[in-house]
Amino acid sequence: MVVKRPLSDEEIAEEAARPLPYFPHDSDAASDIKMRRLLRRCGFEGYGRWWRLCELMAQTDGHAVPVSTEEDAEILADELGFDGISDLMGWLNLVEDVGLIDVDRLGEGEVWSDRMGKNARFVGMQRACGKLGGRPKGSTKKSA
């Protein structure tokens, strides 16, 4: 008999902080009011930059992209195809204004999205549950 114990928030958070192998991109993402506002204000170029930013958040430990130093901001500006930091920061302020990133975290020098946080928690829960046990790795037998 296998006895499962409940997962702690610490276990889930530890797994959630690791880079994500994937994150959902809903087929109707452009219909969301925040995305519609982004599209109206900066077109498909801004929309593409948003999804590239999401990829960067997913790849980053903790899922917050740093912009606290000039070098961090220059790197992100390069990644998103901006000519400089002022263009990047203007776009980030716009993205914050439509509600896609957290204003407090931006003020602290990092780009963070609540949606990416929820995605990370979901994956972290799956990872933590997987550590509790289940079918041994490499097992091909199906249980009855």
What does this structure look like?
It is a single chain. The chain is mainly α. The chain has a domain at 28-125. Helices cover 58% and strands 3% of the residues. The protein contains six helices and two strands. It has helices spanning 9-16, 33-59, 70-80, 85-97, 103-107, 114-132, and strands spanning 65-66, 110-111. The chain has a two-stranded antiparallel ribbon with strand order 1-2. Helix 1 packs across helix 6 and helix 3 (70-80) crosses helix 4. The chain is globular, with a radius of gyration of 18 Å. The two termini are 15 Å apart.
Decide which structural class fits the backbone.
mainly alpha
Helix content: 55-70%
Give the low-pLDDT segments.
135-144
Cα distance spanning the termini: 15 Å
Q: Top keywords for this entry?
A:
144 residues; mainly alpha; two-stranded antiparallel ribbon; disordered C terminus
Secondary structure: elements and pairs:
Layout: H1 9-16, H2 33-59, E1 65-66, H3 70-80, H4 85-97, H5 103-107, E2 110-111, H6 114-132
Antiparallel strand pairs: 1-2
Helix pairs in contact: 1-6, 3-4
Characterize this entry briefly:
With 144 residues, the protein is an all-alpha fold.
